[in-house]
Predict the 3D structure of the following.
Amino acid sequence: MTTSIGRLQASNIDGRARTPRYIQNQLQALHTSLLKNASEVRQAIASSSNYTPAEVSIEFCLAVSVVKDQYASINFDQMLEEEYLIANGKDAANRRAVAGIVHIVPSTHTLFYSVIAPLSVAVAAGNCVVIELSPTLSELNSLLRKLLSQTLDADTFTILDSAPEDTSFQDSCTQLLPIPSKIATANILVSPSTSRAIAIVDRSSHLESAASALVTARFSFGGHSPYAPDSVLVNEFVIDEFSNLIVQHAARMFSKNASTSKAGEKPRKFLSEEELREDRTTVVVSGDGGAVLRVKNRQSKLLQHKFSEPILILHSISSLDNAIDFSNKGSTPLLVSYLFANPASAKYLAQFIDSYLSLVNHIPAELLVGPPTPLPHPPSPSHLTRFNKEMFTVPRPSYTSPPSSSSTTITKLLASSTTTPSKEQLELDKAAMAELKPTGQKPGHHIGFFEQGILTGLVLVFVPAAVGTLVAVGWGVRGLVRGVRR
């Protein structure tokens, strides 16, 4: 066990990181350091990636805003009241205790945000924090090591090159991982980064807005965001028009991204010729900044692939049900489904597509920064709530009074020494045997859609048969009468 881990474990025992004033001082120091070194941080982000100046500013500002938000959430009066609820004879049903030590493995995508956001939330929750940063030549990696080590208290914070080999430490801390782990335990929070993101464009949608949003989401930040759409399912009646709009917006994005390419850098080749020939795949538009492909074969592997490169796949669908069937083919839920349609159609899609998050007619830009919300917590499109204190705390409710009057009755029955049924027992039995309220459902005499169809079918079949029978009988009787007269 390293010395730094030993210090963190000692601090966790004495509860140093849990006091509100200590938390406030740590967050203030972190915020001050980031602002003081803002230019250096921005330069490091730019040199460690091919982000545009706007993307660099977005990542920096979103990360700093999380620190500010956590600092602003500190309410000394509320904390004091919650701490003394039991002492004041009140229930503390929502009481939570700190996890103790949080081990964060940041995502390589938008590394700065992926370190600062969960770090500030874990500190605000009252935890000691371990950041795992693999040694690389990245300028941003080195700068984060220097700034955080100089800013935060070494007794409650440390940076490691790799995960500690001590299994007891791993078992005792809460781990935040950027990709699914083979080991599933209650103290591991995993971002479902390998799950696919799918967009559906219905014929009822505003095609121009959908094309703009999808191209921006797919090709921003080098196409590395887990929330960037991998496949776009487009209604077959509008796919040609939509493809033309995609070309217009993609050309704009490619020219912008090309301006950030480093001098002497060779044009990127995203797919091999063999992959392009597979399953009738055609190139809609391509450039140094990415490629848009149209895949016609539903069985193509490209339609099930999770891309970390600026590649957008278009595929036609015949109906909403067709889109639902395709989207639910995987063994795990989708990371996100972007639904571009009128409200009624979007509701239908959101209801039946198995997706962690559904967004209707928009893609929040801040969603593209950082890793996905870790499971099993509900995802949030806001960067401020991507991580929250509940992730780094555990529920520890406390109560001063029984939950209901029946609890008092049960206690009396258990303490009673009589063998004959008491008044309390009779009341308890009566309450248990009481009938449920009526459902309020009306009798099913109404003729619905399917019943009406059945009746129509019966009319079409039996009415002609009955008429034919009557005519035949009539002619038969008439012939018989004529025969008798003769």
